[in-house]
Amino acid sequence: MKMSDNAYIRYTRFVLFFTFIVILAGGVVRMTQSGMGCPDWPRCFGRWIPPTSIHQLPADYEKYLRQQDIDHTFNPYHTWIEYINRLCGAILGFLIIIHTVWSFRKYYRSNRKIAWLALFLFLAVCFQGWLGKRVVDANLAVVKITTHMLVALVLTCIPVLIIHIRRPIEKIRNNGLKWLTILTLALLIIQIILGTEVREQVDEVSRSLNYAQRELWLSRLNIFFTIHKTFAWAAALACLILFWSSISHKVLQPTATWIFLTVLVVMILGLSMAYYNIPAIAQPLHMLTSCILFTLSYAHKLRIR
Ligand code: HEM
């Protein structure tokens, strides 16, 4: 492998890392109800650098505040959280544009598959940006949230696949393990889709209570919460069996160990929400760790044939 290959792989890893940062930033915006912190787009209160105090608001600021769905007051904390979230999204966009250009220049002749994967990554991030801005009616909200989550997983898995293609690694040939990993991925994807259904419920219930009285939220969730809680044990068990069956293979040890640790964290965060009235901090972390768990399982699968 050439030196420039190493640089390319390091950069692709960084894109992957930054994608997780953007996923976390989106979760923090939701946790703090900062989504309307910048009521207009692409600017924020008509400015490129948002206001830090009420004195910096434009003369017609009330027209912006009217667009907010809850308090209709200026909150610099919400404004800056939303602004940083947008900034992270924009940086990721630039990182991916550079990645696409680099992939085409470097691999279009020698390894066309990588160039097309990079282009797909670029298109996926464009789609994600478009979906994020699209306002949908309440009935379609869950479709939007689920699609957003599934595209986020595509965004994290493509860099993993590109790295895998560029960095030849010894593969394990084991039919049983291969199918166990595929089963785990399938259970995880079902669990994640169920999770987005629960999240949409939490959004609806919390909005109706003005984001207060957290102790009432859980009791107002529908059957999907019960299904999500129950199905979690099947998904977690599959991860544990996968860990146990893989740990004796040296090549699989790193991903297997991370899968084991991450599923523990996902479960602890999920249970903490179920027993402690959905603590705000657990919401973005549960989502982020679920995405990491799926991505790790995908990386695990790539090491088995
Ligand atoms: C393998 C295990 C699990 C996975 C992969 C998983 C995944 C997810 C995902 C992807 C979401 C949607 C997050 C979002 O869109 O913001 C979610 C939401 C949720 N999950 Fe899980 N989950 C798991 C286990 C559990 C368990 C065991 C519980 C509780 C006993 C639980 C409780 C919740 C709750 C309350 C939400 C709504 C959170 C919110 O409003 O942000 N989860 N889950």
TrEMBL record:
Q: Where in the cell is it found?
A: Membrane
Q: Name one Pfam family in it.
A: COX15-CtaA
| UniProt GO molecular function | metal ion binding; oxidoreductase activity
Specify the pathway: Porphyrin-containing compound metabolism
Query: GO terms for CC?
Result: membrane
Superkingdom of origin = Bacteria
Looking at the keywords, is Membrane present? yes
Q: How does it sit in the membrane?
A: Multi-pass membrane protein
Q: Spell out the protein name for this chain.
A: Heme A synthase
Species this chain originates from: Filimonas effusa
